[in-house]
Automatic annotation (TrEMBL):
Residues 22-42, 647-666 are annotated as: Disordered. The keyword Acyltransferase does not apply. The keyword ATP-binding does not apply. InterPro entries: TAT_signal (IPR006311). It comes from Haloactinopolyspora alba. This is Putative BNR repeat neuraminidase.
Length: 673
């Protein structure tokens, strides 16, 4: 049986914050843990239709001069920032604050401030969405800032962009939030939308609660109307602290004997060990292939006949940099030809194919697979077979936050690739991309996929765990059998869990397994309502998805940032046990453990995950920061399970490590039984 265990290194990505998607609401799944308590609502509105003079008791003037004049709130000219907030209006977890403001001169900023808190020294902390009609030679634009002590905080420019605003025109500026760490920002002119986006803000410096009002950096504004609505009570940012692994205290349980012993091993050669990158092992009949990076970081393919000690190697014209996304993937077609791809993260297609079956020395580069225009920014290549046994190649065209998923199918008779689908399977519509794992063939004969959407390269913008299934990779359905139109866009497919941005889910950490009845189980991590990181398993039950919280940990692993992330929580695909229970392996803070779950997905026990023999798991290098890396065979053999082992240094976020670098690692293939 093909193993389902995952390697300990998972690849994530993220990058500098940019604009994101319009706010959309989706139904929440049923939960097996209590949600946060419901809130009441507080509303206010002020049209300033009163006598000229001070703003009145409903406003607190925190900075600068403000007055009512001709039924408008005015801040006259003068140096220094001005800030007026609504009295008695404390922001809850969900809120919307807007103001219709007119800038009276160019080069002056104005906007709406939220989560305003006073420091006791005349300064404030807050977020502000502000616009400027012109700033010197810069055209009109907007900014979302985080202010600390009334100055722009370090890394306080959270987002910005152009917006067509001019002086002496009224614009309605709105800031709202439906979940912690996500601000919805919009700008309108007489009903015409000029900006409409959701933006993530850093959770480790999150502002919450406080007041809301209007802002200008130097006066010269006139406010026609302001309004706000908020949930009650006032919100406070959860601060759960660092993630703490807390074992589940359940019943005693002994896993079925899964002990793996080494039957034989074979040294392939030496490989680059300066940073982690996934390498490949593929057994096809009596042929075995290894795809790896040699000590000079050249992509290399080795071949042997099973049982032989000698490997034939072939270097390819592709050289690895420092990006851990740039793994190697391989497949053999029905005519016995080897296909190799990899070393791409938004790069032109890297693809090789043999001209003689089972002869790696005949590997030849193929520059175009189907359409050169969609093969210039390739990431996440994968080979696999469809239900008919045809070779399929899946990849992302585009970048993180802006990409589509394309599927090609190979014809060995013509040695040509063509599109399996007339459209992308997933399309981010230029605003986001779907992070999809390789389709998993289930016991029901369907391929199953789960994915999250990401709006920017920042991992904090992962959101909206989704699902679909297909008998043939061409026709796709929801869990209830309802057809899904292609391409799948944001919100299409089954919404398994409408996790918001900054909700703690990581792409590549959503694993599909099956229970004893063949029902799909999706394992993933996210924050609970108190901000703690937890693992969950979702299952379609009684015409709806149900999310079951499995762990009861304390603290938060902050899922944010860009490049290859070092994961503190790793999930694997749940699988049924002979007694009807479910096995769910995970790693939390380096603890390799296994949950035993009842058929109802309730934890029964937690035990140590059975480990491979020490000769595989123990690090042999004496270079600091080295780890063992393993990859199970992507093929199958009647002899047992084959495993590829090597060692490498840890990740440096896809950036070069300063020298010295570790010596090359020995690359070995083990036969396990």
């Amino acid at each position: 049986m093909k193993p389902t265990r995952r390697s300990a290194l998972k690849i994530g990505g993220a990058a500098i914050l940019t604009t994101a998607s319009p706010a959309t609401s989706f139904a929440a799944p049923r939960q097996t843990t209590p949600p946060s308590p419901p809130s009441s609502v507080h509303n206010w509105e002020d049209d300033f239709a009163r006598a000229d003079g001070g703003p009145g008791a409903d406003w607190n003037i925190l900075r600068g001069d403000w007055t009512i004049s001709d039924h408008r709130l005015i801040s006259p000219s003068g140096p220094g920032e001005r800030l007026a907030v609504r009295a008695g209006f404390a922001l809850g977890r969900r809120f919307t604050v807007s103001a219709t403001i007119r800038g009276l001169r160019d080069d002056y900023w104005y906007g709406v401030a939220v989560n305003v808190s006073e420091n006791g020294d005349g300064t404030q902390n807050f977020y502000v969405l502000r616009v400027v009609t012109r700033d010197g030679s810069r055209p009109p634009h907007w900014q979302l800032l985080q202010m600390s002590e009334s100055h722009v905080a370090d890394d306080g420019l959270l987002a910005s962009g152009p917006v067509p605003v001019v002086k002496d025109h009224d614009y309605t500026i709105t800031v709202g939030s439906k979940s912690l760490g996500v601000l919805h920002v919009s700008i309108e002119e007489e009903g015409t939308s000029l900006l409409d986006n959701d933006l993530v803000v850093p959770l480790d410096t999150l502002l919450s609660g406080g007041q809301a009002g209007v802002y200008t950096n130097a006066g010269h504004i006139s406010v026609d109307r302001a309004r706000g609505t908020t949930s009650v009570p006032e919100s406070s940012a959860p601060d759960p602290g660092p993630l703490q692994y807390i074992p589940f205290e359940g019943s005693d349980y002994t896993l079925p004997d899964t002990h793996d012993s080494v039957v034989e091993s074979s040294v392939v050669g030496l490989n680059w060990s300066g940073h982690p990158v996934r390498q490949a092992l593929l057994t096809s009949g009596t042929d075995q292939y290894v795809g790896y990076y040699d000590p000079d970081r050249r992509m290399t393919v080795a071949h042997r006949q099973l049982g032989a000690d000698e490997w034939t190697t072939q270097s390819l014209d592709s050289v690895l940099g420092w990006d851990s996304h740039n793994y190697v993937t391989m497949a053999v077609d029905s005519a016995g030809h080897l296909h190799v791809s990899g070393n791409m993260h938004g790069d032109p297609l890297v693809y090789f194919r043999t001209t003689r079956p089972a002869d790696v020395t005949s590997l030849t580069r193929v520059t175009t697979m189907v359409d050169a225009a969609t093969e210039l920014k390739v990431t996440y290549p994968e080979f696999f077979q469809n239900a008919s046994g045809d070779l399929v190649f899946r990849y992302r065209d585009g970048g993180s936050g802006n990409g589509v998923d394309l599927y090609n199918v190979y014809d060995p008779a013509t040695t040509q690739w063509s599109r399996l689908l007339d459209t992308p399977l997933h399309d981010g519509e230029g605003r986001r991309n779907a992070y999809v794992e390789r389709p998993v063939l289930g016991p029901d004969g369907n391929f199953h996929i789960a994915w999250v959407w990401r709006d920017t390269p920042d991992a904090a913008t992962n959101a909206l765990l989704s699902y679909a299934k297909s008998p043939d990779l061409e026709n796709w359905y929801r869990a209830d059998g309802t057809p899904i139109s292609l391409p799948m866009t944001y919100g299409a497919g089954d919404i398994v869990d409408p996790i918001p941005m900054n909700g703690g889910i990581l792409n590549g950490n959503s694993d599909i397994g099956f229970d004893g009845r063949g029902r799909a189980l999706i394992a993933y991590n996210k924050y609970d309502h108190e901000g703690n990181t937890q693992v969950y398993i979702a299952r379609y039950e009684n015409r709806g998805w149900v999310s079951h919280q499995i762990s009861q940990w304390k603290g938060r692993w902050l899922v944010a940032g860009y490049g290859t992330l070092i994961t503190q929580v790793i999930t694997t695909a749940p699988e049924p046990l002979p007694d009807g229970n479910i096995r769910f392996d995970f790693i939390c803070k380096g603890n390799k453990r296994t949950f035993i779950l009842s058929p109802a997905l309730r934890p029964i026990a937690e035990v140590d995950t059975p480990q491979l023999p020490a000769e595989i798991t123990e690090v042999r290098s004496d270079f600091a920061g080295m780890h063992t890396r393993r990859r199970w065979d992507d093929g199958e053999s009647e002899d047992g399970r084959y495993l590829l082992r090597w060692e490498s240094r840890g990740s440096n976020g896809d950036q070069p490590w300063p020298p010295p670098h570790p010596e090359p690692s020995t690359l070995e293939v083990y036969l396990m039984r």
